[in-house]
Write a structure and sequence with these properties.
The structure holds two protein chains of two kinds.
Chain A (H helix, E strand, L loop, with lengths): L7 H41 L6 H26 L7 H17 L4 H25 L4 H20 L11 H8 L1 E2 L2 E2 H19 L1 H11 L1 H6 L4 H27 L10 H11 L11 H20 L6 H34 L2
Antiparallel strand pairs in A: 1-2
Chain B lengths: L12 E10 L2 E11 L4 E5 L6 H8 L7 E6 L2 E3 L4 H6 L2 E4 L11 H6 L13 H15 L14 H13 L5 E5 L7 H16 L3 E5 L3 H7 L2 E6 L2 E7 L5 H9 L17 E10 L3 E9 L3 E6 L5 H9 L6 E6 L2 E2 L5 H6 L2 E4 L3 H5 L6 H6 L7 E2 L2 E2 L1 H14 L16 H13 L5 E5 L7 H16 L3 E5 L3 H7 L2 E6 L2 E7 L5 H8 L5
Classes of the chains: A mainly alpha, B alpha/beta.
The structure holds adenosine-5'-triphosphate and magnesium ion (MG).
Chain lengths: 346, 504
């Protein structure tokens, strides 16, 4: 760093910003690392298969990531508060079917999306209330709602199925269309992502989510409305799962009672790979989004390289463990760097 | 009924006949307290007397079982800490309550940051306001640095800055100075005096009696949850105050026994940890108590941690009884007879959810294991023995440590390490948050241990304690050992001069 004028004010500023830069670097490092892994993976695949990055190839890559990015964004908020929502897969399944049924009956596509979101909000509220009021760990509560929602879904749907033929043509076209290589769905996800990131950084209630994940006891003493914030995080997560349900319907046009089964694990993996710490208080939604992009790309990369897709799960697992190991190492390094910086203060 | 207009200015905040119990423990019994604008009021009492409980009642953390909280003479009910804050009450709790993942600036302004248009946070204004507060307190802490890893003293300073940032009408401070040295305390008191002139009401808790006499006008004394007296400090002596708190006269606070030092037990040579401390050499002999003084951040705790092996050192050597210790191996240090009582009891000293008994027993696992199984009976009797010797105040020895008052938690940490029967004992702030009566008891214990041939290295920010207990005083300044002063020459002036780097 260069300080041109030796005046004390600018020197102080310089040292302050070097401090913030250290912190920024450490936090961004994670996102950069994922981005690097992602780019290398894409480059290698492209080298092995020049068809991979065709316009349609890029579009597929983005389309595949979109739904996971949306759900992971909602999940990040919950994980930041030191909780988790395992019911997102079930919510996605039931909202997709609800939207499909409505459209099949001749409903308006916009209303169908709103309906899915509202249904998601309902389940989010339910989770939020159970977690914030009952003194039961979120893992257990949302495992319960996972099965309950899936149960309701199975009873309601039975062996029925929604197919693209049941849906208005415009809706399905919207699901696969886009502006050159960028699908409409990806644009929606991007808007949600950027909006959420902005909210988390620039609004008091957003920062309070980090605070209460970082230390619930201190949050209570600071007068943060802990229950309300947790409720809001779950509601938002539910809403995005609902939105994702509607987009799933538009993209695949095919929904049955098993839709979204086991999806919660992929979502949680994406969030953790993306650097949102499971014990709360740190991480970012764009990290989670990158994690989602990375995980879904593995799905497209392996077939393009002619590797059997049975490897996908194993590779996802390796990425997850790698991410956790990196977190641990980074945390230790930061701790020792901070300690040294401490000692230099008079 | 007293009417506010009867006697001079009305109290801003008052407690009337407050009672509070935790299960069978009656923490407060019919306590009343009045805080007036422009006055600094002290709250004194032994560990577990109920001071923190009283504060938490004022702050809306605890709801009283009986009695009233009065704000400007009107009864109020605080449903949570947020309510009390909105009423203009700022509180520094005994244990720092920071968010480790967030920056110092965010910690200070959590919940009430400067805003820009559309309700967005003004990050720049937040940072600048924090820098301003740090200047006012005379400390250099980077507002953008995360709170994780701050020393106890720095955490305390952030808490103080947080409380000051409120411009509160009532400032309540539960042992804010416990981890601070003279110069930071002086800064704090300067700020408190300004606030007092501006008409704030201040409630101050400290176990350092000289601080109470320096800054306070009135004192309320609690004993076993009951109010003993509420009176002006003028004309009172320390002995009077102690008698109110303890209920009897106290023997000497610094019962140092004279001993002839034996052979060298701990020898530290040219120890260096890059960027933290440099070229630190000293010896501690059997039977000796060596004080390690210095300002906050001088590197005292870091040296102790390196010697014990919690942190690695980059150069130098450490010997116990002439045998070198392995770098970065606490278990080897323990096996060689070294014990370290750490400064941060919550993070390093205690398992908060475990019982008192098990916490004291932790270090003795080796001696209380028979045929691979824990001998619970032996653990219990050993723990009870130490709990009684240190006068730990508890309901049942099987209670979780988290239910103890701050000072009593500190006693459990001490008990845990004393129970190992060490050859070399390093104590980091051994009496932080401990009341006068027990302080004398801890000093007597340390003195006794030294007389029995233990080598003691005592880090303390409490200068009278260093001067009263140490055979020799080592002083650190900015990571270097700047002076070694024998007991006969050690005075407040000589030690402070070396600690602030005013001697060559
Ligand atoms: N949450 C709790 N659960 C059970 N008992 C408690 C709890 N909090 C405090 N106590 C008990 O209430 C009594 C008063 O504790 P308090 O923390 O108010 O003491 P204190 O005067 O602040 O002591 P110190 O000087 O050690 O900080 C103690 O006997 C303590 O064990
Ligand atoms: Mg207390």
């Amino acid at each position: 760093m260069t300080v041109t004028a030796p005046n004390p004010a600018s020197a102080a500023e310089a040292s302050a910003s070097s401090g913030s830069r250290l912190a920024d670097r450490v936090f961004k490092m994670r996102e950069l690392a994922i981005l690097a892994v992602f780019l290398v993976m894409i480059a290698v695949t492209q080298a092995g298969n020049s068809e991979f990055l065709s316009q349609q190839g890029v579009k597929d890559l983005l389309l595949n990531a979109t739904i996971l990015v949306l759900v992971a964004t909602g999940q990040s908020l919950v994980v930041i508060t030191r909780n988790v929502d395992l019911s997102v897969g079930s919510t996605l399944g039931i909202t997709a079917f609800a939207a499909g049924t409505y459209l099949h009956g001749g409903g308006n596509p916009v209303v169908a999306v709103v309906l899915a979101v509202l249904l998601g909000v309902g389940f989010g509220l339910l989770n939020g209330l159970l977690v914030s009021l009952g003194q039961v760990p979120a893992l257990v509560v949302t495992l319960g709602t996972l099965y309950i929602i899936r149960g309701i879904d199975s009873i309601w749907v039975g062996s029925r199925q929604i197919t693209a033929a049941d849906l208005p043509g415009g809706f399905v076209d919207f699901g696969s269309g886009g502006i050159s290589a960028v699908p409409y769905l990806a644009l929606i996800a991007l808007v949600v992502l950027v909006g959420t990131a902005y909210y988390l950084k620039h609004y008091g209630s957003g920062r309070e989510l980090y605070a209460l994940g970082s230390s619930p006891e201190a949050a209570r003493l600071a007068g943060i409305p802990v229950r309300r914030r947790i409720l809001a995080a779950y509601t938002f997560c539910g809403a995005l799962a609902g939105l994702a349900g509607a987009l799933y319907l538009a993209r695949f046009g095919n929904v049955d009672s098993g839709t979204g089964n086991g999806y919660e694990l992929t979502v949680v993996s994406a969030v953790v790979v993306g650097g949102v710490v499971f014990t709360g208080g740190s991480g970012s939604v764009h990290g989670a989004a990158l994690g989602a992009l990375l995980l879904t790309s593995v799905n497209s990369v392996l077939p393009a390289l002619g590797v059997s897709s049975v490897w996908v799960l194993a590779i996802n697992g390796i990425l997850l463990l790698l991410a956790i190991a990196v977190d641990r190492i980074v945390a230790l390094r930061v701790a020792s760097a901070l300690k040294k910086r401490n000692a230099r203060h008079g | 009924m007293t009417h506010p207009s009867d006697t001079g200015p009305a109290p801003v905040l008052a407690l009337k006949d407050i009672s509070k119990s935790f299960g069978a423990v009656r923490a407060l019994k019919n306590v009343s307290l009045e805080l007036f604008p422009g006055q600094v009021h002290a709250l004194a009492g032994e560990n577990g007397a109920g001071k923190s409980t009283l504060i938490k009642t004022l702050a809306g953390v605890h709801r009283p079982d009986a009695g009233q909280v009065l704000l400007d003479g009107e009864p109020v009910v605080f449903h949570g800490p947020g309510d009390a804050r909105d009423a203009g009450i700022a509180v520094i709790y005994q244990e720092p309550t920071l968010f480790p993942d967030l920056s110092i600036a965010e910690n200070i302004f959590m919940g009430r940051r400067p805003r820009r248009a559309l309700g967005r946070i003004d990050h720049k204004a937040t940072r600048e306001a924090t820098a301003g507060l740090m200047r006012r307190l005379g400390v250099e802490l980077d507002p953008d640095r995360p709170a994780r890893g701050l020393s106890i003293a720095d955490q305390q300073i952030v808490e103080i800055a947080k409380a000051l940032s409120f411009d509160a009408r009532v400032l309540i401070m539960d042992e804010p100075t416990a981890a601070l040295t003279g110069s930071e305390v002086a800064r704090l008191f300067g700020v408190v005096r300004t606030l007092r002139e501006q008409g704030a009401a201040v409630l101050f808790i400290s176990h350092r009696l000289e601080e109470i006499f320096e800054i306070c006008e009135r004192v309320t004394t609690l004993r076993d949850g009951a109010r003993i007296a509420s009176e002006p400090l003028q004309g009172m002596g320390e002995d009077d105050l102690v008698r109110r708190m303890v209920g009897r006269d106290l023997e000497a606070l610094y019962p140092k026994q004279d001993v002839t030092p034996g052979e060298v037990a701990l020898s530290v040579r040219r120890l260096t940890r890059e960027g933290v401390f440099t070229d630190v050499s000293f010896e501690v002999r059997r039977g000796e108590i060596v004080g390690l003084a210095g300002l906050v951040g001088a590197g005292r705790t870091e040296v102790a941690r390196a010697v014990f092996g919690v942190d690695r050192w980059d150069a130098g050597e450490v010997e116990v009884d002439g045998r070198g210790l392995t770098n970065g191996a606490p278990s080897a240090a323990m096996a060689a007879g070294l014990a370290l009582v750490p400064e941060d009891r919550r993070a390093q000293g205690l398992v908060m959810d475990m019982s008192i008994e098990r916490n004291i027993g932790l270090t003795g696992l080796r001696t209380t294991v028979r045929a691979g199984l824990m001998d619970r009976g032996a653990e219990r009797s050993r723990s009870l023995d130490w709990a009684v010797r240190l006068q730990v105040k508890y309901a049942r020895i099987a209670d979780a440590v988290s239910t103890l008052s701050g000072g009593n938690q500190q006693k459990v940490v001490l008990a845990k390490w004393l129970a190992t029967g060490p050859k070399v004992l390093i104590v980091d702030e051994p009496t932080r948050g401990i009341d006068v009566g027990t302080k004398a008891e801890v000093h007597r214990l340390l003195s006794q241990l030294a007389a029995d041939g233990v080598a003691v290295l005592m880090i303390s920010s409490d200068l009278p304690e260093i001067l009263g207990m140490a055979d020799r005083v080592l002083v650190m300044h900015e990571g270097r050992l700047t002076a070694e002063i024998p007991r006969s020459d050690a005075t407040e002036e000589t030690v402070m001069a070396a600690a602030t780097g005013r001697v060559a």
